[in-house]
Amino acid sequence: MEVLSALEEGPSARRVLTEALDRLVERGLVHAMPGGRYRLPRDQGGRVEGRFIQNPRGFGFVEANDGAGDVFIAPTGVLGAMHGDLVEAVARPGGRGREGAVTAVLKRRSPMVPGVLRARPKGSWLEPEDARIRGPIVIEGDAVGRDGQVVVATIERWPSHVGEVPTGRVSEVLGEPGALATEVRKVTVREGVEIPAAPDVLEEVARLPSTVTAEEVAGRVDLRALPLVTIDPDDARDHDDAVYVVARPDGGWDVTVAIADVSHYVPAGTALDRHAAERGTSVYLPDRAISMLPQEISGRIASLLPDEDRLALAVEARLSHDGTVTEARVIEAVMRSHARLTYGGVANAMGWTDEGSPAPLTDEMRAMVTTADRCSSTLRAKRQRRGALDFDLPEGRVRFAEDQLTPINIVQSKRDAGVKRAYALIEDLMLLANEVVAETCVQQGLAAIYRVHGGPQGEAFQRFMAAALALGHPLDEEVVDSPRMLSDFLRSLRGTPEARVLGMLLLRAMPQARYSEQNTGHRGLAASAYLHFTSPIRRYPDLLVHREMRRWLRDPEKRTSTEGLSVAAADCSRLERRAVDVEREVLDLYRCEVARLHLGEVHLATVVGFGSLGVYLDIDDPFLTGLLPLESVAAGSWEADDLGLRLRSSRTGMIFQVGDQLTVEIAEISLARRTISLRLAGTAKESLRRAPPEREKKGKGGGKKRGPAPRPTVAKRGRKR
């Protein structure tokens, strides 16, 4: 009655109040006491903000922006939050680390949800494709599309409490399940990477000047006479870096790396800035790019197109003969690209490869590329001496028919040594520019977002060392503290059958590179300070660094507040992971589509890992990863060794070992499950190595004693630096 009185409500509101208090008790925000009394928890916890990650079983986590770890949310504490929402939560210490409850939804996820339409005479609903999305989503009014089709529902009424489901309307019909275009669109919509630009964003773009004006050039260093060139992949959609390298008489080099000044066109606090921050990075699919920025900016206004004046931030560095930076500065500049070159074209023109067609290099360009190549080699050797790691893991690249729509093959990218050399030339110069800017930010105390990467960790690294020993490549314990020794070890493996396996194990033993407002160094590059500066067209952290550099160049005495920088860094890391996951999943879909063309074919495949469903094998041409179900080989239990290198049948003694080569047939394709199923071909089963089968042991209850479940050791593709 005291609460009713405080709320100035009469006895008629007692039932509503009691139900509300009961819900607060369920969520742990209020404690019930005898006699119809309530109190706040003694430890009310602190308030945190972050993304809500739903688990299909009802509970969830808040990826808190305070850097103190995730907050466990029990099913009763979810409130009306949906997977991907930005929420506020109360967090307190608990048995699972931090526990709490959602107190408010601050910003809703994308309202677009793909799934299967269930159309019935008395009503329709959508079964979300993502099991983490609260469903079903009730379709209001007449449903567009047929029962069983894949559609996109746009949520119009969001849930306000745990038991409520969202409602919406069908906004797009994607097609029948299992079609490549349908499945790809499902992924991009589900993850929110392909949302149209809002009207206010397009209005800001329309107001941007189409050419560089005299007013914009004023005060900038004029580099238009410098013969800078861009070198990019054949299918590059944007061009954000140009380079020029000249040799000095003392054996060193003068290097200029000019980067598109995107920050000039995307000021902080604008609709364009919000648009870029929500995307975080461009997403590169086999058939197209989903740009972080509208194409008018990324592909035209800011892009370093040949023979066009462009605004840039440029790094000028003077290097000694061994690649040491002796002088460096960052400048606001105006520049003009003198040529748009490609990796393949440069490699062919320089005689590094016979693949593709040669680029039309002038004598001056050819001399510059030769000089840049020598400088690049010196920089790379210097990084290797200090302990930079080069995993060199293969990645898949889709080749299309002449219509540029139909996938016909998957090949390993950067396989040709000459093209790889051209890639390395640009990569080395970009790494140099990033390190120069990072060192500048550290020395000047600027508010920057760094790219950080820790060293090998714990049990995973011990497993890597044990695997190296088992495969005949023993390592000393001190290698964990010696970047140089680890780098030398990786290089010593090149060309050996174990190189890929050990490279993947080492990669999994290291934390993923991420963004942080604190500089803790980059172990993978063996750099004391590193950040991303060279791709502001496609990465938001680069854009943030550009803004800070421009501010400092114009007013070195002014200091920028670091407030909100940790949240921005966490968001950039999260959105990068999202982009990587989307790119991998879509590539898996294309792999399945290419595999359809090879159904029934027999190929030589290499064992790359084990999972709960079977053995994973790689086929080189086409470059596919397939699953060999264990039940198709032998019935009974299978046991993995402690290193995850071997899988053994306890009944037959058959053994699969990572690195083994087997003859397999491509047996079945499922786009819906993103899987390529294999079966052993010919006499492959008989050729499997064998160990004596173990007798079944019985426990106290008389049942069979099973070995440990196979450890998931499926290879993941290389991580971005």
SSE layout and pairings?
Blueprint: H1 2-6, H2 14-26, E1 31-33, E2 37-39, E3 46-54, E4 60-64, E5 71-73, E6 86-94, E7 97-107, E8 112-120, E9 123-128, E10 137-139, E11 150-157, E12 167-175, H3 180-190, H4 199-206, H5 214-217, E13 221-222, E14 230-232, E15 241-247, E16 253-260, H6 262-265, H7 271-279, E17 283-284, E18 289-290, H8 295-301, E19 309-319, E20 325-336, E21 340-342, H9 343-349, H10 363-386, E22 396-400, E23 407-412, H11 417-444, E24 450-452, H12 458-470, H13 483-493, H14 499-508, E25 514-516, H15 540-554, H16 565-596, E26 602-611, E27 614-619, E28 624-629, E29 638-640, E30 646-649, E31 655-657, E32 661-670, E33 675-680, H17 684-687
Parallel strand pairs: 5-7, 10-12, 13-20, 14-21
Antiparallel strand pairs: 1-2, 3-4, 3-6, 4-5, 6-7, 8-9, 8-11, 9-10, 11-12, 15-16, 16-19, 17-18, 19-20, 22-23, 24-25, 26-27, 26-32, 27-28, 29-30, 30-31, 32-33
Helix pairs in contact: 3-16, 9-11, 10-11, 12-14
Tally of structural domains: 5
Q: In terms of structural class, how would the helical and strand content be classed?
A: alpha+beta
What is the tally of beta strands?
Answer: 33
Distance between the ends: 61 Å
Mean pLDDT score: 88
